[in-house]
Amino acid sequence: MTTHIxxxxxxxxxxxxxxxxxxxxxxxxxxxxxxxxxxDYNDEATVRTMTLEHYPAMTxxxxxxxxxxxxxxWPLNDCLIVHRVGEVFPGEAIxxxxxxxxxxxxxxxxxxxxxxxxxxxxxxxxxxxxxxGERWVESNTxxx
Amino acid sequence: xxIQVKFFASLRESLGQSETTVERASTVSEVWDxxxxxxxPPNNLLVxxxxxxxxxxSQVNDGDEVAFFPPVTGG
Lengths: 144, 75
What we know:
Helix content of chain A: 25-40%
CATH class of chain B: Alpha Beta
CATH architecture of chain A: Alpha-Beta Complex
Distance between the termini of chain B: 37 Å
Strand content of chain A: 35-45%
Number of domains of chain A: 1
CATH topology of chain A: Aldehyde Oxidoreductase, domain 3
CATH topology of chain B: Ubiquitin-like (UB roll)
Helix content of chain B: 10-25%
CATH architecture of chain B: Roll
Number of helices of chain B: 2
Structural class of chain A: alpha+beta
Mean pLDDT of chain A: 95
Order of helices and strands of chain A: EHEEEHEEEHEE
Order of helices and strands of chain B: EHEHEEE
Number of domains of chain B: 1
Mean pLDDT of chain B: 97
Largest sheet of chain A: 5 strands, antiparallel
CATH superfamily of chain B: Beta-grasp domain
Distance between the termini of chain A: 32 Å
Largest interface: A-B, 29 and 15 residues
Radius of gyration of chain A: 16 Å
Largest sheet of chain B: 5 strands, mixed
Strand content of chain B: 25-35%
Oligomer: heterodimer
CATH class of chain A: Alpha Beta
Structural class of chain B: alpha+beta
Low-confidence stretches of chain B: none
């Protein structure tokens, strides 16, 4: 299983290290990764904590579908997706995506596609807690 | 006939319910009307039938699970 939904803090660089150590030495010429972490601000407001809700059965299935599609569309040797749910604090990782391939273009493009697909289609929702209360995040930023 | 209905995130809070069951619906739109007493659906409403994205015109069958939710914001 290379798709994981976790309800507690995780160390993305440790996950990348441990996951890649299990791969055959010399197989991959490229590794690309994306790590999304929680900021302590959003829309000029200070954010204290955030709660990530999801639709458990659909998120697991959808992330597995994304991974399968990425492996179909690009010559990837391996792929790793990790996503947090529950209460998240500033500085903690929210999402990790890793892609391994023989050459850089496949790993880079697949990683980029995976995070964009995940952000706009995987059924997760963020609720921020700040000084004035709490609010649902209504849309993603455009990534710029 | 029985269809399981779920609501998530801000939609769950605004409707005041997380799940319910409806009888005798043939489309997602009918499921919405029965489950919400014909509340006006939000413009950006998303829907899934049996864990796959669908739309308000999608057909539903006995035993299906229909989920309604706002735009997703993960990652």
